[in-house]
Design a protein that fits this description.
Number of helices: 6
Number of domains: 1
Structural class: mainly alpha
Length: about 140
């Protein structure tokens, strides 16, 4: 098995060591936060209503914080400036937001609950990807893009 692993690694090395691919992968992980921040900024009234719907009052400061921090932590990750801090912060935000916004455990069994469970698990997976970004950056001390 070790031989196969080494052969596969050698074959994939040109792609996996390609620096822009790493950045594009981080952009993909950050895209929900970047898109969400831009959309909330463009329609701030809808962002306020969203916060009210989740019971976060006063809603305007919460909406502003979500826009600002979603964008700021994404920029930290993509630029490499304290990447691990930005990634951990977005991971924590994702977990808290998922618990607040997708309480599948309170729903009656059925299709809507299954859909909510899937959305919740997808968000936990996204949180895991952010933790891996933080882990890599923290352990390798990479302050590069």
């Amino acid at each position: 098995m070790s031989y196969l692993n080494e052969r596969l690694k050698k074959s994939a090395e040109p792609l996996m060591s390609h620096h822009p691919l790493r950045w594009v992968a981080m952009l993909a992980v950050c895209s929900p936060f970047l898109l969400g921040s831009v959309m909330k900024f463009q329609d701030f009234d809808a962002a306020i209503k969203e916060m009210e719907g989740y019971g976060f009052l006063p809603a305007a400061p919460y909406a502003a914080a979500v826009v600002f921090f979603g964008f700021a932590f994404t920029v930290m990750i993509l630029t490499g400036y304290l990447r691990w801090v930005g990634a951990l912060a977005l991971s924590l935000f994702t977990i808290v937001a998922s618990i607040a916004a997708v309480p599948f455990w309170q729903m009656t069994p059925g299709a809507e609950r299954l859909l909510s469970l899937r959305v919740f698990v997808e968000h936990i997976a996204l949180s895991g990807a952010l933790i891996l970004i933080a882990w890599e950056d923290f352990n390798e001390g990479s302050d590069e893009q």
